[in-house]
């Protein structure tokens, strides 16, 4: 993977490990990888275009040199037919110069054409690999988000019923029980105070009745 992507190859090394150690966001890193891969493809397309232009230029020079070879050959024949051997000789000499140029251009053109073929194949492979990564990107993003969600849920669930939460709950329970005990105690005290008041009130009431009864007896001559 990433065979032809120089930027990503660099990043996938020590820089990626460092990023993972820092807990970088995988989704953002995937987007960054895709941007860098796309930039590599654009660079490769530029290189292929330049090499293709060079191959076409060499082909034109080769064709031009071949045309001159044929032209000088014909001119040498015409010069001999006209009885001008010296002109025919010079035409043949110039033909040989162009023949050497044609051979040189032929070799250069064949190499350039081979380079274009190789670059095109690599560019095609880069694009295929990029498409594979693009298709996987959504899946990887979804998996990353799912993993993050599961981690958050697990952390939240692990905190429920934990020692700290349990101790806090127990403290609140003890507090409620204390409140209930205080309420019961205050009710008992109030009840006790109320009974005493009732007895004293009843005592006063009974005393008044006894006085009234004694007065009534005295009036009737019962005593």
TrEMBL record:
Region (Disordered) residue spans: 139-168
Pfam families xref list: PspA_IM30 (PF04012)
UniProt biased composition (Basic and acidic residues): 139-148
Superkingdom of origin: Bacteria
Protein family membership: Belongs to the PspA/Vipp/IM30 family.
Record-given protein name: Phage shock protein A
